[in-house]
Amino acid sequence: MEHVLEAEELGKRYAGRWALRDCTVRLPAGRVAALVGPNGAGKSTLLHLAVGLLRPDAGEVRVFGAAPYENTTVLADIGFVAQDTPVYRDFTADELVRMGGKVNRRWDAALAKARLAQLGIPPRKPVGRLSGGQRAQVALALALAKRPRLLLLDEPVASLDPLARREFLQSLMGSVAETGTTVLLSSHILADLERSCDFLVVLQAGTVHLSGMVDDIVAGHRQLVGPRHHGEPIDGVGAVVRARHTDRQSTLLVRTDGSVRDPSWTVHELTLEDLILAYLADHDAQANHEAWGVPA
Ligand SMILES: Nc1ncnc2c1ncn2[C@@H]1O[C@H](COP(=O)(O)OP(=O)(O)OP(=O)(O)O)[C@@H](O)[C@H]1O
Questions:
Q1: Residue 141 CB–ligand 1 contact under 6 Å
Q2: Which distant-in-sequence residues (6+ apart) come within 8 Å of 118 by Cβ?
Q3: What domains appear along the chain, each with residue ranges and CATH number?
Q4: What is the pLDDT of residue 253?
Q5: Contact (Cβ atoms closer than 8 angstroms) between residue 248 and residue 228
Q6: Does the pLDDT of residue 288 top 80, yes or no?
Q7: Whose CA, among 97, 149, 222, 277, lies 20 to 30 Å from 234?
Q8: At residue 279, does pLDDT exceed 90?
Q9: Does the beta carbon of 45 lie inside 6 Å of ligand 1?
């Protein structure tokens, strides 16, 4: 399988503190991948390393086989939209489309114009006077016009209304299906992801907790509800990811490679959103409380 992006024990420190650590992940070609994790998990840091804006402090990241920080030629194949959609605010969308043609090898101005026209973005208004969501659409249109082989999007839908969000993700999937572009997008809006992404990377406190094809991940997890569990093995369960207990009952998120046959457990399937939330919940509670000097 061809991997577009490969990170191997990748690490980045800011002022001596690891923002990303031992990050090993491989992104297969042609996927729309979601990068999820709580605030401060290291998502932007990973994306900035992948587009060569940051230099790794440990390990390595390769995009199309090259290290982006050292090898800037690979950047022609990468489209990137940063979190704050930093387009030049004094320029109009039309001017930005024309400027893009001057600084990019491959440039599909017609594609950008068709997208912006369809979205009703005014061509001759400075983008600084557009709404946040309209600016995000301009930034995406410019990134797509570059005809990138890998598109990195840092929270692209955060400022979009629900309809625009759906349209954005649908058109993204359409454009990916047409061009074979691989996409890695960070998002906090989990409900959208199951429909639009087929690969998932879960980051938590700078490390990868889960990555793989969405269908495999969903098929490989179940929630079990049953009698109070004290760690004894359960037939059909590979690992317990998370456990919650009352005096008499336990609720477990488990990895399973087959059916759970023990009749004392009720087995529930999980949505992708439930699964991600279960992975993320409570994880750093102890460390965070210690950092603030208050009891957990
Ligand atoms: N320039 C910087 N200087 C110092 N620390 C930084 C810097 N940028 C990020 N950090 C820290 O690195 C960690 C990871 O930040 P990052 O922005 O990558 O997280 P994120 O997952 O993108 O968060 P969010 O969802 O809030 O955008 C955080 O603890 C953050 O405070």
A1: no
A2: none
A3: 3-212 (3.40.50.300), 220-292 (no CATH)
A4: 93
A5: yes
A6: no
A7: 277
A8: no
A9: yes
